[in-house]
């Protein structure tokens, strides 16, 4: 049997590296399903090997609740080699004080253990927002679900570009078209803030948060 879980998580800073960026490190506004699964699996203490083996058995997604700003910063990197120093400048995009709703759907026993660990704050590894220094500042409102809805409209989240029928931007709304890589093939995902996305078909949703396979 399968069940679902959502929780609200806040970070002081976040950076979810866009797959195709190299020297200039852009960030996804909202973490992709693979990142959300990694967040939950770190709480359970699952290894990378377990993550790669088990992720196909779960669905996950995220919804943006709030963000206070987005900044571009330059960092000077220092590479130390014998008798040689190499200095290079790298631009990095940071998400300032974001709050997300994370969702996961899968095996009931695993979801039950997750819920219990979150309630007790018993984390095997500390989950973080893309960079290990960016650990969460607060986790709240964990909720369990025995079933999901199916809808063709979502707000402040993301969809594969191929599912987009039409977007509606509200006041100060914005939309982003990001690339991501699956099996070596580039695809695109639409992410929105203060906006609504209408889909070509219905998808599973719990607590206003979409559920996707690890690779959408």
- Give the helix tally: 3
User: What is the fold-level CATH name, i.e. the topology?
Assistant: Alpha-Beta Plaits
Biggest β-sheet: count, sense, barrel?
Answer: 5 strands, antiparallel
Q: How many separate domains make up the residues?
A: 1
CATH architecture: 2-Layer Sandwich
How much strand content do the residues show?
over 45%
> How would you spell out the order of helices and strands?
EEHHEEEEHEEEEEE
| C-alpha-based Rg, rounded | 18 Å
- Structure classification: mainly beta
The termini sit apart by: 23 Å
Helix content: 10-25%
> Taking all residues together, what is the mean pLDDT?
90
Describe what this molecule looks like in 3D:
The protein is mostly beta strands and 216 residues long. The protein has one domain: Alpha-Beta Plaits, CATH 3.30.70. Helices cover 15% and strands 55% of the residues. The strands form 3 sheets. Strands 8, 9, 10, 11 and 12 form a 5-stranded antiparallel sheet that branches. It has a 4-stranded antiparallel sheet with strand order 3-6-1-7, covered by helices on one side. A hairpin with a 2-residue loop joins strand 11 and strand 12. The longest helix has 13 residues. It is globular, with a radius of gyration of 18 Å. The model has no long low-confidence stretch (mean pLDDT 90).
Summarize the structure.
This protein has 216 residues and is mainly β. It contains 3 helices and 12 strands. The protein has one domain: Alpha-Beta Plaits, CATH 3.30.70.
